[in-house]
Amino acid sequence: MPHSDTADPSSEYLDPEQRARIEIDEQLAECGWVVQDYKHAAVAAAQGVAVREVPTDAGPADYVLFVDRQAVGVIEAKKAGTTLTGVEPQTRKYQVSSPDWLPSFEVDGALPFGYESTGTETRFTCGLDPVPASRRVFTFHRPEMLAHWHDEYVRLGGHATLRAGLQLLPELETDAPGLWPAQAEAIRKLEQSLRENRPRALIQMATGAGKTFTAANVCYRLLRHAGARRILFLVDRANLGRQAVREFEGFTVPDDPRKFTELYNVRRLASSRLDMAGEAATKVHVSTIQRLYSILRGDDDYNESLDEQTGFDTAPTQPVEVSYNPRVPIESYDLIIIDECHRSIYGVWRQVLEYFDACLVGLTATPGTQTFAFFAQNMVMEYGHEQAVADRVNVDFDVFRIRTEITESGGTVPADFVTEFRDRETRQLRFEKVDEDIDYNAADLDRKVVAPDQIRTVAKTLRASLPKIFEDRERDPDGLLKHIPKTLIFAKDDSHADDIVQVVRQEFGLGNDGAVKITYKSGDAGNKPEQLLQQFRTNYPTRIAVTVDMIATGTDVKPIECVVFMRMVRSRNFFEQMKGRGVEAPRIGGRPGPYGAGPWPERPVSEANKSGNDHPATRLAADQSALARKGDRQQRPEGRDARRQGQGPLHDRGRRRRDRRRHARHGAAGAQQGRQLRPAAEPDRPRLHRGGGRVVGGVAPGPPQPPYHRGGPGRRREGRRYRTGRPGPPDHRRTGP
């Protein structure tokens, strides 16, 4: 506890170093330390005791830290404004000079933990790291953390911290199972960067290149081989968090037949109350940055709807300030992986990330200048869209532009014209004759002025142009496409999206399920955005979705063939992310790897999905076409063609199992009807995008999307399991795998 006879820290009678010591005393008490004077010290009073002015062979140390009655470290206090890197030799002098009569835990003749602090800035050096180097920390570690490091050092013979455990990571094999070359390269380079004690790293991988899958592999390797205690996977918004949890649930680890979640608990943080003392069994947390900020604040009044929006949209006007939360100490995470980091680490949220004493890894397809600076220009992997197209991970695109007069130059509502007025809040309509001309420019369109005919013109032109863009598609007697390509339209706001949905349904002849609005406000009408998104992913009748920015970044929806921009986008990075919703190339069987760039999958083609996107005959034709293009470079293993044509024991067994389910639900007639396939879309499925006010399109090489299951493309969904008492995999940190 602080000195009882000292004055307030702001008192003019205290010199700067005395004020610093009072601040340090308060911080130590918050972090669980009992602060005592040397003359009245009782180091058995608590697990962690900080004793002032302890005599050593080099003179009295400002503070000596005792854990379980042993001296383990020292704190050197300096006045505010002191540059602390120059104080490190003085701290080291006290660490190596503990008297013989003092019970202590030493490594190479010195107490392993050293702090320098001014009360406003604190630096920490861990002598258990392979290369001890000081780093800035938000405040002091709790006694339990130092005790854990001490116990691990004794148990493992020296490999106590994550930085020490990284030295024992087994080298990732050249042909690592389940990974294609770019993913394996990103993992190797990241691990090498962490070994070199570079705590911040940036991975730039194109949209669709499997960033989350790569991160799941990183998490598994660090948890199993490097002794990581807990990892935070930070996402941009809640629906991406749910998507990330599904990715972990479907991830079969490379050296074990079980799923990741059968070995380690994964939990999405959905409450603002969190106590890390009860989270020992949870190894991966998934959260948004706004949720994490509310947890640090202990905010009981947190608005749950904020989780459904991005950290950029909900960011306060001023940078947030973080105070210490004893329930969530700075050592809560060893590693923080920041997905879509081009959006989630803007300056206002920076202190939330820097609160934790953890390594930071950013994932993005479009790094910006601020992102580059935050990660100390340490880009360990650069895998852009062009290379992804060359590797057939992504597809290229073409530009198709639709112009209207009022979109380009605005327009005028003439005087004496009876005009419909709509209230912004209630959407109540009233009709009024205007007294004078009302001029509006292009920026006012769909915000101050709604022109339904302009939306209708765009929709008509788009539908009429689809046969020219998708020349190889089946057409109806009117010359229009028989199957509408899966299309995503970006609107300006929720009201604009509502107008577009109504017009699109009329012009494309679609019902309520054919064209849907998926925005944050969809939940206000009783339709959860996540359910609508899942319907758009897997349901054939849903051909067109209209959104504002909910599906703009990170959301995994494939195969989207047309991305239409009916809004202006002034951010290059944001535009690249939005355009990226439609550039992912189809996969065969989901994981592993992109079509044509990785091993052929060993699973049979499923008939369970009758969506029209996944007709087995279409897949077979596309597979044969792709194989012909590949020539003699790759021969298909014997017997796989038979399975793809609906033959073989695996296919028969799966068909019988599905027939039994259909029979139970619909009777014998339903089981027979379920075998009849719907007409297929053509194998080479083009894609249409639009960006910066321009419609963009391209042709995707390879076959259409693989079967959809409830857990996502190409894999079944495993139920979430939380096993607090089940032992994990063997610990390989001492002897290696």
In short:
Helix content is 30%, strand content 18%. Strand 5 and strand 6 form a beta hairpin. The longest helix has 25 residues, at 649-673.
What's the SSE blueprint?
Elements: H1 16-30, E1 34-37, E2 48-56, E3 59-67, E4 70-77, H2 88-95, E5 113-117, E6 122-126, E7 135-137, H3 143-156, H4 162-165, H5 181-195, E8 200-205, H6 211-225, E9 231-235, H7 238-249, H8 260-263, E10 265-268, E11 282-288, H9 289-297, E12 335-339, H10 341-344, H11 350-354, E13 359-364, H12 369-374, E14 379-383, H13 385-390, E15 398-400, H14 405-409, E16 411-413, E17 418-422, E18 429-433, E19 438-440, H15 452-469, E20 487-490, H16 494-508, E21 515-517, H17 529-538, E22 544-547, E23 562-565, H18 572-579, H19 616-630, H20 640-644, H21 649-673, E24 686-691, E25 694-699, E26 708-709, E27 712-713
Parallel strand pairs: 1-2, 4-5, 8-13, 8-14, 9-11, 9-12, 10-11, 12-13, 20-22, 20-23, 21-22
Antiparallel strand pairs: 2-3, 3-4, 5-6, 6-7, 15-25, 16-19, 17-18, 24-25, 26-27
Q: Strand content of the residues, in percent?
A: 15-25%
Number of strands: 27
User: Structural class per helix/strand content?
Assistant: alpha/beta
Placed side by side, the strands forming the largest sheet appear as 1-2-3-4-5-6-7
Number of DSSP helical runs: 21
Given as residue ranges, the uncertain stretches (5+ residues, pLDDT < 50) are 1-7, 588-651, 668-737
Oligomer: single chain
Shape assignment: elongated
Task: Give a quick account of the main beta sheet: strands, pairing sense, barrel closure.
Answer: 7 strands, mixed
| Helix content range | 25-40%
Rg over alpha carbons: 30 Å
Distance separating the two termini? 47 Å
Average pLDDT works out at 76
